[in-house]
Specification:
The chain is of the alpha+beta class. The chain contains 7 helices and 10 strands.
Length: 234
């Protein structure tokens, strides 16, 4: 039997109601936002993504390379997490990200090698979604990715066991010190579990918000060797 709040459509405690009221009062799509004319959209989503990313970088949009990766396990249970874009192939509409081969996301991708990537840039009112099959890149890409990182990121790559239970901060600090010493002694070493994935989009959506709620949404879908582009209701 459903709980009473669910039956009545209630939203929870008074504290929850107050929090929701504050949330609803927060500004959204305050602008100014860039315009997007879908008639000017290029033939491929890779080119449009590059344009939008370049504009975000030029305008100082915070962390435009941060994205949400969504995967599903063999049973179809979805999971999402935030990580960084590690590589781009605009012509192929392909996007790279990295992980630990023992991580839950790697387990998902081994069982179900498809995923979606989502970017949201509030300062521009823009969302992008790419979805498609995921493959593992070779040792060269793995090496370039890991050794191209800053020292703190490389130390983190050798620290602990991703997503496994942690007994406390003391255990983490011991692992971090050991990893820092390892990186200092062997700066060219790469964790055996470091892995780089590539998502090659089969569909892509671009959403441009408008303060008057006259949003623009464009969808691309692979069509043989090319792409079909369509305007969608937002």
């Amino acid at each position: 039997m459903r709980e009473k709040d669910e039956e009545s459509g209630g939203t929870g405690s008074l504290a929850d109601e107050a929090l929701l009221a504050r949330m609803r009062a927060a500004p959204v799509l305050a602008g100014p936002l860039p315009r997007f004319d879908p008639e000017d959209a290029p033939d491929t989503p890779g080119e449009l993504f590059a344009r939008w990313l370049d504009a975000a970088l030029a305008d100082g949009v915070p962390e435009p390379h941060v994205m949400t990766l969504s995967t599903a396990d063999a049973d179809g249970t979805p999971t999402a997490r935030v990580l960084m874009l590690r590589g781009i192939d605009s012509a192929a509409c392909a996007y790279d990200f990295a992980s630990d081969s023992a991580s839950p996301k790697s387990g998902d991708l081994a069982a179900n090698p498809r995923a979606a990537l989502t970017w949201y840039w509030p300062a521009h009112g823009r969302q992008i979604r790419m979805a498609g099959p995921v493959t593992v890149l070779g040792d060269g890409a793995t090496r370039r990715d890991f050794l191209g990182r800053g020292e703190a990121s490389r130390v983190a790559g050798f620290t602990g066991r991703m997503s496994q239970p942690l007994t406390g901060p003391e255990e983490y600090e011991r692992e971090r010190r050991a990893a820092r010493d390892l990186v200092a002694a062997e700066p060219d070493r790469i964790p055996a579990t470091h892995i780089v994935y590539r998502l090659r989009a089969r569909e892509a959506e671009f959403f441009q918000a408008d303060p008057a709620r006259f949003h623009v949404r464009v969808r691309y879908a692979r069509d043989g060797d090319g792409w079909h582009r369509a305007l969608l209701w937002p």
